[in-house]
Amino acid sequence: MVIRWLLMFLLLVGPAAAEGNLTLTITADSPTDRLVVGQMVAITIRAVYNRKIALERLQIPPTDAFDWVQTRQDDWREEMIDGLPWIVMERHMAIWPKRAGLLHFGPVRHELTIIDSASQRLDTVVTAPPLALSVGEFPPLHGWHMAAARVELTDELSTDAAHLADGEVVVRKVTLRALGSLPEHLPPRPVVSENWLITFAPPVERELILTDEGPVAQAVWTWQFRPHTGEPGMLDPVPIPFFDTVNHQLSRVEIPALAIGYASFFTGQVPTGRIGGAQVLALTGVAVATCLAALALAALRLAPEATSAGLARLRQHWSPLPRLRLWRARRGGDLLALRRAATEAGRPLDELAAIDRRIYARNPKAPR
Fold first, then answer.
1. pTM listed for this prediction
2. Domain extent listing, the chain
3. What angle (nearest 5°) sits at the alpha carbon of residue 275, between those of residues 271 and 281?
4. In angstroms, rounded to a whole number, what is the distance separating the alpha carbons of residues 154 and 160?
5. What share of the chain has pLDDT > 90, as a percent?
6. Fewest CB atoms less than 10 Å from the CB: which of 82, 106, 166, 326?
7. Measuring CA to CA, which residue among 59, 74, 54 is closest to residue 111?
8. CATH code for the domain defined by 13-135
């Protein structure tokens, strides 16, 4: 039985071995010692052949253990190795483990039609052994799990959201970019739902951008906001956590808080739910004025006579009418009218006594 299997193996590999040196390997280009689920690994599939290739097809079997994408076009070239010309092919890829454990990417098959030494076409298959990777669990994190080498976030507004014209709509566009991720690895768009806000959200735009640094996943989240009542409101900040694969630690970016309101309603204070210093002074003044008014009303009800007398004194002090009547009585020479006017005007007691002496004195011409 062993001899039979050995003969079958020699039949399969014999033509290729007889017609040249054909090797195919899979190597990791990025560190793999502390991998976690969802962390990108850059790999290279490298073929080194000493025969001309007429036709070729690289077969990567489907797997449920990895996501993968080719990051650039295949590179075919001729290299001098040990003084001899060789045909070299390299395919650069990025793979992402989908679960923890010992995972294998591959094997990979390269189906070739080579030109042999007799200038004849010969079909053969070269196989690369699988790449073994040890993958750890994603660090404990509540919510969406995303691993990336770098995450960037930009927040753009079509206008000043805190000072909208009446009926105006503000468009907010948040762009999230993650180096070393796929678009499906990015979190879903945050849900914005407020009673005071009318929200419309167009479909999310997702794409994969291939750069010299590696694949970049991009998602564009767009909202259209219009205040329901126009009064200023505040959208809370939204944190977006991720695992930083460069520093091997949890990190995060944040969609900043946003104040939204019509300019006709906006008071200049950011509605955060906390009262600022100017608001405290204004509210204190209103409270003091209210207390004084309440005390005055209570005084009117509890001591109406004293309060009426006090109000009468105030009228006497500030009103010009008593002074006008006093002036007219002096000009007219009517002592009784002068006495009444002096009393209404609140003149001093000695002046009132002098008028009384003139009225009741036996000698009307007595000096004042």
1. 0.65
2. 13-135, 147-260, 279-360
3. 130
4. 16
5. 58
6. 82
7. 59
8. 2.60.40
